[in-house]
Amino acid sequence: PGLFIRDPELIKHICIKDSLHFKSRDSNIENIELSSSKPNFSSDTIKQFFSIFDEIGNNLNRFLSDLTAANGVASTNIKEICEFFTTEIILKVVLQADSKDEKLRNYIKTLSSSNFLKNMHSIFVFFAPNLAKMFKKQSKTSENEFKASSAALSFSLYELAMNAEIQDNLREEIKNVLSENEGLVTYEVINSSMPYLDKVVNEVFRLYPAKPIIVRELSLLDGEDSYNSPPPQKMSSKHHQLRYRLHSMN
Question: CATH number for the domain including 52?
Fold first, then answer.
């Protein structure tokens, strides 16, 4: 049994006041996603990669400058550029490979292709049904993780393009930080001296959540045989689920 809720006040009531009743998540889906989304790098490790981030960022800046060199204005696919930037980081940071290797770059893009994953799943369904179930869950998570960074970049640039005042404020903060730190942006600077950037990123995540639907399972407390939700609706099954969209909170 389950209930899809849309009222923001009811969602806040469940998530805050009655959170003890809804600590459990869908054991078949969310536990897999939570375990796979644990940080792979410590803060110290990330600090060591900032020189690589800076190099890749400079490469992207030169690429965009070349696009506008001829006419001063260029029309391009920003989604592809964000995917290119993300692939560069994955190749150099995660795989420690040469980002100029075109074959490897194309291979990484193939692995993130929905068609590739669907084809692999179809093969497993025919030859190994049990493996197919596992592959479907894991491949879906991998695909989402791979695309999360490029999607966040794309949506951020879109919102900045649609909100000129916010774009100007953010640009001013970045220019001030660069002038105060000899043109360098470090891990410490981002975490302590760029509050406006932090607000922009958090707002993008609020508007475009990576996981649009949240699932919670009812957990009855000791001595309880049912739970009355506001407005009163009795739930007695321990497997009773509530689902809500994060967009409902916008």
Answer: 1.10.630.10
